[in-house]
């Protein structure tokens, strides 16, 4: 073992109270960093999930006069080959009107492939009554529309489209997607039913896609990778970031605030360690002078305090990670909504925890350079003489 490391450990053991206080100071700083970082990450993830978790991340629309996409199979294949895109659903959206039992409602008739659409919107698990449509001219409606029309699964309702054509639909199920406007306006039927009703066989109005959850924040980059689809200029490719600029601005503000707090915490830790170790140099100056007189080199004397900072950083970093995780976990346990769910879901990011630990060790080691340099300048004769 390096002689400097042995002496550093002995110095730390000889002042156990001081060592514990420094380690606790580092631990508290790291725990604050971990707690705030985890809290902000959890809050951002929760906001993104709430906003776009069960909706389209990337949408392809037509720019033609009729707003229809024809021969779309090749588009689906092209998009499916792109890395990051995990779910694809073709949609035919058209307006309609319901007259039922002296009640009238405007609706958006959405023809979808339920097997694909359910992967994006998770409709099946959000059914409060009945089942998803399986046959032509069956429909799933939202809870708000159900209340307005006073219908239930199994009832029949008649829809009128702009051309004046009327069509009877059987209500197969009722869903609750937790968005009032969607629950009131969406009229979900099979893609074939919608195409037949509007005379638009083989045509759709949009293609909705979701990307891997870990890549949601780079939806704009993945969206640009689809530009090869638009060689004719008859398509428009949009993503959720373009439609949620205010949300992104808020998330960026949260991130900046988090980084600033963490930086100031690190600065305070560095200053604290540098100050305490600088005092330690004065306290141990006689011992260092004797060691130098015995032949220890200046570089070895410097390494003593560098090793002290490194050891304190490792001890404090480990304690801080555990304490920070405990604080974050406690927050999710005690801070809960009325329904029992956490106000902010706990975000466990091993990479962030590891980064916080590395920063603590690096900061402690850098802070030790100041007293280490000071110790290398001690004159053994003067130190021993003035004892």
Secondary-structure element string:
HHEEHEEHEEHEEHEHEEHEHHHHHHH
Derived structural class: alpha+beta
C-alpha end-to-end distance: 29 Å
Sheet of most strands: 6 strands, mixed, barrel
Description of the molecule:
The chain is α+β, with helices and mostly antiparallel strands and 387 residues long. It folds into 2 domains: 3-51 and 247-386, no CATH class; 64-233, no CATH class. Helix content is 55%, strand content 19%. It contains 15 helices and 12 strands. Strands 3-4-9-6-8-7 form a 6-stranded mixed β-barrel, surrounded by 4 helices. A two-stranded antiparallel sheet has the order 2-10. Helix 10 packs parallel to helix 13 and helix 12 (298-334) runs antiparallel to helix 14. The protein starts with a helix and ends with a helix.
Can you lay out the helices and strands and say which pair or pack?
Blueprint: H1 3-14, H2 16-52, E1 58-62, E2 69-70, H3 73-80, E3 85-100, E4 103-112, H4 114-121, E5 127-130, E6 138-142, H5 143-149, E7 156-160, E8 166-175, H6 180-185, E9 186-190, H7 191-198, E10 203-204, E11 206-211, H8 219-224, E12 235-239, H9 240-243, H10 245-283, H11 285-293, H12 298-334, H13 350-367, H14 369-376, H15 380-386
Keywords:
387 residues, alpha+beta, 2 domains, six-stranded mixed β-barrel, two-stranded antiparallel sheet, 15 helices, elongated
Short description:
With 387 residues, the chain is α+β, with helices and mostly antiparallel strands. The chain is built from 15 helices and twelve strands. The strands form two sheets. Strands 3-4-9-6-8-7 form a six-stranded mixed barrel, surrounded by four helices.
